[in-house]
Automatic annotation (TrEMBL):
Organism lineage string: Eukaryota, Metazoa, Ecdysozoa, Arthropoda, Crustacea
Protein name per its UniProtKB record: Ubiquitin-conjugating enzyme E2 J2
Molecular-function GO terms, alphabetical: ATP binding; ubiquitin conjugating enzyme activity
Occurrences of domain UBC core (ranges): 7-157
A Pfam cross-reference name: UQ_con
Major enzyme class: transferase
PROSITE patterns listed in its UniProt record: UBC_2
SMART domains cross-referenced by the UniProt entry: UBCc
């Protein structure tokens, strides 16, 4: 068990460093300082989608033998797409260890989650709402998140907290530096990630910051 945990820790450190070097479009992720096996993420609703303007907090819970087994995936913020605090059934989650690929990184997991969020395919843990209802959830999402202590602590910039000092930035830099002893990062999936039900491959996501 100890050896498995060491492997999981090294791999997650590597995934963390990669995300810091190459930030994901629309997605921010941080492990709990006290437990690297629990990560929290925030998805910023992409423009021209029903989630535009929304801020969606969720978590990934990794097993001690990651990357050989997949994580549990949860959405915490009401979105109109997923049930809250419910394990989501995706081929990249612990619902389907048979389809899991140990080469998939945290970045690949979160990218796959966002791709599925933008679709309308049903799965266990999803809900059916109109686009207008999703827009209403988007408007209320930040207010909901501001009641969550973990969200405030891990994503203070998104919470509108502006009192970050040089000391806090230094701590962030030190945290990233401490994780530099990571194991080599595995490659991301070469094909689109499917859900419990077969769906069309998701289209590549483009950041609104990218200039053509």
């Amino acid at each position: 068990m100890a050896m498995n945990l060491d492997t999981a820790t090294a791999r997650l450190r590597g995934d963390y460093m990669h995300i810091k070097r190459e930030p994901l479009p629309y997605i921010t992720a941080e492990p709990l300082p006290s437990n690297i096996l629990e990560w929290h993420y925030v998805i910023d609703g992409p423009k021209q989608s029903p989630y535009e303007g929304g801020c969606y907090h969720g978590k990934l819970v990794f097993p001690a033998d990651y990357p050989f087994r997949p994580p549990s995936i949860y959405m915490i913020t009401p979105s109109g797409r997923f049930k809250t605090n419910t394990r989501l059934c995706l081929s990249i989650s612990d619902f389907h260890p048979d389809t899991w690929n140990p080469a998939w990184s945290v970045a690949a997991i979160l990218t796959g989650l966002l791709s599925f969020m933008l679709e309308k395919s049903p799965t266990y843990g999803s809900i059916d709402t109109t686009d207008e209802e999703k827009r209403e959830f988007a408007k209320k999402s930040l207010s909901f998140n501001l009641k969550d202590k973990i969200f405030i602590e891990l994503f203070s910039d998104k919470a509108g907290v502006r009192h970050r000092t040089r000391t806090s930035k230094s701590k962030t830099h030190s945290k990233a530096k401490a994780l530099a002893s990571a194991a080599p990062r595995s490659s991301s999936p070469s094909q689109a990630l499917n859900t419990c039900q077969k769906t069309q491959p998701p289209q590549p996501l483009k950041s609104s910051r990218t200039k053509k």
